[in-house]
Amino acid sequence: MEDRSGQAGRYGFLLLSRRKSSHFQGRCPHLIPWRRGKTLGERKLTIAIDGPAASGKSTLAMRLAQHLGYLYFDTGVMYRAVTLAALQRGLDLQDPIALARLAEQAQIDVRPPSQDDGRASDILLDGQDVTWEIRSPEVEANVSIVAAIPGVRQALTAQQRRIAQRGNVVMVGRDIGTVVMPDADLKIYLDASVEERARRRFEELRARGGHETYKSILAGMRKRDEIDSQRAIAPLKPAEDAIILNSDGLDAQTVLDKTLLLVGQATNAG
Predict the structure, then answer these.
(1) Residue 204 contacts residue 53 (beta carbons within 8 Å)
(2) Which of 166, 197, 229 is the last residue before a domain boundary?
(3) What is the phi-psi region of residue 223: left when phi exceeds 0, alpha when psi lies from -120 to 50, beta otherwise?
(4) For a surface tag, which of 190, 192, 234, 245 has the fewest beta carbons within 10 Å of its beta carbon?
(5) Tens of pLDDT along 8-30?
(6) How open is the CA angle 249-253-256, to the nearest 5 degrees?
């Protein structure tokens, strides 16, 4: 992407050069403005959003998809569903062959929300609604182990790519821009400090009646970051051409507004 840092536009914001981070605070001299050109309807964009746990990437992806009329697809629910299935069946989480076989056989489906209880979609595992079960602390503590298994990732990545080929999709996960959709029209890596992310997860669980402490959530999140970033297959990292955004101190609407500028840039570049 052409580096035009320092040029201000009529929007008062500039768009980041690739692999540079920003908090999008005020009029930043390192961003590039986008101009109105093609409408979004003229292109079937594929948008990849990656980032660590509780960085706000799922909230951003969901709101962005709603705004654009795109499909919202959180690939993490697939790994969580496989983890839940393994725990329910008492499988050894250190047995990669058994877990890969489970990932191939499990019937995982994502549908529009059927209940107004805060869910973004219905997650079905072998026909059963497990939308909230896959967010349990036990699943949270083990999903990185399951997701690091090559056979599990291979089985689920194939399904994710088929969905991506339809276009008009906002896909969110941890390896979307690097593995699942390396040719995505727009790649965003949404980051935040581990303390901020733990606070968000703590408040989310407390709102649903959970009793896990902030300290335990913080420790678990640090462990998960280590596992995710050091795994041999598809480690958590920004794609080389991703735009890195830091959401510390920003509310969801502000992050969405800045992302829409990036979408406009990607649309005009096509």
Answers:
(1) no
(2) 166
(3) alpha
(4) 234
(5) 232 223 334 344 444 443 333 33
(6) 100
